[in-house]
Amino acid sequence: MTTTAITITPGGKISTITKPIDLRLLQEAVDGPVDLVALAGGPSPLDMWINDEGMLTEHINPIATEIADSIRAGHQQNYYGTVIFTGGPTDEGSTRALSPSRASEVLALAKTMQQLLI
Q: Domain residues for 101?
């Protein structure tokens, strides 16, 4: 099955998702209301969805923080709680699945950071 999204917990657990992406899936993944961090546009967009209240209620997610910084160089902000990586929006405003190249990139970065940080 094709990976549509990737979740990463603060403790370093990396999971792939193969279901269609909708608001319910995003909210379940981050355990609450979602906020969007657009990491990359262009032909292979990358979005990271976070818990909107995560900074107040969750632990820092070092892997997600480092991935965001490596993709958006110089983007120095900590992210908290479980995050979910997806493709960017469609013209209609729905959330796209990750492209195969973005899925591979995020998984490779996550596994490298997992070895270094956790």
A: 5-117
